[in-house]
Write a structure and sequence with these properties.
With 159 residues, the chain is of the alpha/beta class. The chain has six helices and five strands. The protein binds 4'-phosphopantetheine (PNS).
């Protein structure tokens, strides 16, 4: 059974993330969504809130998707999950430099691993967690940025 890891901050999960999860499930049997618990970053949504939003968004995929929090190095998390495959989404060429650096740094730490890049659907290319947070902070409508199943929870969690 092939297990892949899809890591990120997911602050909060967007339609773009879910698109990558769906695509990832076409190439691995099981996908572990690793939600970073990083004390250096101050997220808008707490780890628990990010997990709950992601769990709700991934309900349609049942047991093929597991949501797990992680801290520390991604390569250590990968080993813990008994996986050698990281899945990351690319929205535009602007994502590439950062992603390439991260993939190469990770591979230098764990040569057996591969990073698989999947491209987001064009209509989601402009969506990011940062855009969602900015629109939320300014009282705008985010219903076309996030999974509909998470919308109510998102407004409840919003600070
Ligand atoms: O959604 P994001 O914030 O772009 O995800 C970034 C993430 C979580 C994949 C990255 O920050 C990460 O893997 N952090 C764990 C620390 C680590 O392993 N760093 C070394 C690789 S650059």
């Amino acid at each position: 059974m092939k297990t892949g890891v899809y890591p990120g901050s997911f602050d909060p999960v967007t339609l773009g993330h879910v698109d990558i999860i769906e695509r990832g499930l076409k190439i691995v049997d099981k996908l572990v969504v690793g939600i970073l618990n990083n004390s250096a970053k101050t997220p808008m949504f707490s780890l628990d809130e990010r997990i709950r939003l992601m769990k709700t968004a991934c309900e349609p995929y049942g047991e093929r998707v597991e949501i797990v929090a992680f801290s520390g190095l991604l390569v250590d998390f990968l080993k813990e999950q008994d996986s050698t495959k990281v899945i990351r989404g690319l929205r535009a060429v602007t994502d590439f430099e950062y992603e390439l650096q991260m993939a190469q740094a990770n591979r230098s730490l764990y040569p057996e691993m591969e990073t698989i890049f999947l491209t987001t659907r064009a209509e989601y290319a402009y969506i990011s967690s940062t855009v969602v947070k900015d629109v939320l902070r300014n009282g705008g409508d985010v219903s076309h940025f996030v999974p509909s199943s998470t919308l109510e929870m998102l407004y409840k969690f919003r600070r």
